[in-house]
Write a structure and sequence with these properties.
The protein has 63 residues and is an alpha+beta fold. Helices cover 44% and strands 16% of the residues.
Length: 63
């Protein structure tokens, strides 16, 4: 299974976040949602998780 990457650096934020998460898709979606809520003050919702899932890249492509 290909690891997926969520990279906060690709999205503008007030905090200029530099977090990058890598792992299996469900792990990354869960961790990225928790991060979005706790750091960026988003509301956890199915829509947020779907947006995160849609933005993931294969780990090879993100390097």
């Amino acid at each position: 299974m290909t690891h997926k990457v969520a990279d906060c650096r690709k999205y503008p934020s007030v905090s200029n976040c530099s977090l990058t998460l890598s792992g299996e898709e469900d792990e990354v979606v869960r961790a990225a949602a928790e991060h979005a809520v706790s750091v960026h003050e988003h509301t956890d919702s199915p829509e947020l998780r779907e947006q995160i899932r849609a933005s993931l890249e294969d780990e090879r492509a993100a390097v």
